[in-house]
Amino acid sequence: MSSNIDKEIQILVNKYNYGDFNSVLKKCSKLLEIYPKNDFLWNLSGLSFQRIGNIKNSITSFQNAISINSNNHSAKNNLAISYKSNKEFSKAENLLVSLIKENPNYVNALVNFANMKNETYFFDEAISTYEKVLKIEKNLPELHLNISNILQAKNQMDEAKNHLHKAIEINEFFTLADQNLSMLLDYSDESNNDHIDKMINKLKNPNLNNNDLINLHFALGKAYEDKKDYENSFKHFESGNKAKDKNSKFSLKYFENLAKDLKSFFLNLDISKIKQHSNKGGNKIFILGLPRSGTTLLEKIISSHSEVNSVSEIGYFYDLINKNIFSENSIDNNKINSLLYQDLDKKYDELLKFYNVKNKYIIDKTLTNFWYVGFIKIFFPKSKIIHSYRNPKDNCLSIYKNLFKTNEAWLYNQNNMGEYYLIYNEMMKFWNEIFEGEIYNNKYEDLVNNKDSKTKEIIKFCNLDWDEKCLNHHKNLNPIKTLSINQANKAIYKTSINSSKFYNDKLTELYSILDRVS
């Protein structure tokens, strides 16, 4: 390799590390015309495609790198990551197992193998693999965070806290561990004041990046709210939301057009004429709605049933529909008509074979499925759909107070959140009109205030025999993955009802929009 290409590659690596992925791809494309057999460039292209979410092109790039150099272990490991992102778990596992067999101490492959086992609910295997890696390289705080998340899903909260403390001991500025820990601690207990003080001191560090600031502000917002110090609480929540919203690209017009196009399509569609899926989906329960609307409580209650497991927010159906109905951000009727002949129920069940779920009925709690209720009714007409909702102001306040793993731009801006809520509300009204009586609309406040009767009503709607364990959801050891896991593992409580009143003078922009909810 010439010194010129070495210099070009170093510049590209620097741009990649800086996050300028589109520039990297543009330059890689030009260089590969000159050096088509350069496996490093193909691997770097694949990584850049990964980072912008173009998994299809990343796979092609990694495959090209491997075809040129079969010993490019980095490209193989990265290809496995792309396969996992595509939920092609068999291909991902084969690659990772072969890499680990060749080098049992290959940390990157071991971590990605553990990540895949974590995603597919093989939690014990995931933890044992993470622990193996920590024996090879002990200074990896991210692995303690991953183990903590698994332990939270398994309702082992004390052990989960211990691993977060270990992560912070390794790197005191690993602020994501602080933010996660804040969700598990009760700061009304003064013994936790020390953590508040440490986070305040960390905020004074001028070298913190934007993500660190976001993590600490959301954590401190939660801490001060526990102490009922709503002034300081809101100050930090507002700072966290503004920092998160700073570089977001929200298009209200996109969601308005999506809602308009979906309504138009289904108003002109006679679903009764689509016969090929008529007996499909009988083993699936879809729980949907907005974040923080009570969906996790429903998931925990229903999955307490001896015949039910959950794959939580798996995202499979939502992603599949997104990939197959659009052309240039608009709904394409030709694409939809082609999709209608696919057996998605069979594909879904094939995917579930890679998950550690063994019961007859499966809960899919992908919240954004509310957009595609009509497609659920087409492909899984025998499934059950449960929509969770609550007081709009309480719901949106709870969203405003939380940091989500997804990057949906509407989550961190009062105006965007309010307008998005209006669109969601109208969308659900439309689905309930089109599929009258076929959607169970669960009001969170009713479930909390009338737990026994509402739980029995929900289980009956799901066509399940009554199971007394559903009344003791907090004793349910079936693992679920969600932001609300700590609350869902507790007995039902009513303190979140009308919590929006504490912020009436602070979220005026949001609340004025929500006053338009009909």
Index terms:
globular; 7 strands; 2 domains; Serine Threonine Protein Phosphatase 5, Tetratricopeptide repeat; 518 residues; 26 helices; mainly alpha
Account of the 3D structure:
- This protein has 518 residues and is mainly alpha-helical.
- It folds into 2 domains: 3-245, Alpha Horseshoe (Serine Threonine Protein Phosphatase 5, Tetratricopeptide repeat); 252-514, Rossmann fold, CATH 3.40.50.
- It is 59% helix and 5% strand.
- It has 26 helices and 7 strands.
- It has helices spanning 3-18, 21-34, 39-51, 55-68, 73-85, 89-102, 107-119, 123-136, 141-153, 157-170, 175-182, 193-203, 210-226, 230-245, 252-267, 295-303, 316-325, 333-339, 344-352, 373-379, 392-400, 414-434, 444-449, 451-461, 485-488, 508-514; strands spanning 284-289, 308-310, 326-327, 330-331, 361-364, 384-389, 439-443.
- The strands form 2 sheets. It has a 5-stranded parallel sheet, with helices on both faces.
- Helix 4 (55-68) packs antiparallel against helix 5 (73-85) and helix 15 packs parallel to helix 22.
- The longest helix is centred in the C-terminal third of the chain and has 21 residues, at 414-434.
- The model has no long low-confidence stretch (mean pLDDT 93).
Give a short overview.
With 518 residues, the chain is mainly alpha-helical. Helix content is 59%, strand content 5%. The strands form two sheets. It has a five-stranded parallel sheet, sandwiched between helices. A two-stranded antiparallel ribbon has the order 3-4.
